[in-house]
Amino acid sequence: MARIIVAGGTGLLGSSLVGALQNDRHTVAVLTRQPTRDNEVRWAPHDEDGSWTSALKGAHAVINLAGASIAGGRWTMARKAAIHDSRMQATGALVRAITAMQQPSPIFISSSAVGYYGSRGDEPATETTPAGSDFLAHVCRDWEAAANQLAGTSRVVLLRSGVVLARHGGALPQMALPFKLFAGGPAGTGRQFMSWIHVHDWVGMVKWALATQDVAGPLNVTAPGPVTNEEFSRTLGRALSRPSWLRAPSFALRLVLGEMADALLLGGQRVLPEVAERRGFVFRYPTLESALRDIYA
Question: What are the distances in angstroms from CA 279 to CA 43, 215, 275?
């Protein structure tokens, strides 16, 4: 069994992954700003001579999930700087610490997102599709470039994750709340695509990437069945036994959320997991219907 480091491992994705790795009998250490458990190590990315760097010694893999939430508040200039800089600071600190080791970790898996592709309408996006030009695309492009500095030292995998669906945590509870209040429905035209993945498949794909030696570079961590926002709304409504007809107008979303509305709700990406499917990854929940049925069973 291997020793694995997870940076930023206390949120939905991190805690789900850490639990699964521990169930597989790996030894897992979590780098976090506020440790509360025995396997957690206090992490201050700006302190590159800190004691946290010693936790990396002997690690088979380092998994970087750190970064400020993109939905944590209206995108002011200060908020956008925090989103960008939190990712660059954390990734840069890990890269420099691994590079300085006598025996660097052979695997570095680092977060990114489908926001890399920008808003592309109904154009399918695979791992070879070029980056977009909006704010999130710029963040993801810089984030991946920082991680790729280890490409000559470690096997680098870049997780371009879609919307991860789980009953508790992540985006789904916020999406489901209007439906539970009988006020759910599509955002804007509803024609924009949503690329999603069940949390169990997200964890499964990260574990698969750890174990599959020829997987390197960008990896679309999305289900093979992206759907339009309208279809997502209908399917979520059925799963919750609620109507899904109350459309949220684009102008109202922009008024409330500003630039974030176009990036997170009104724009979209039709992302396909080409690398995972070509190399044999098997999804437990390939359709939105099956994913939501499991989550709300």
Answer: 35, 8, 6
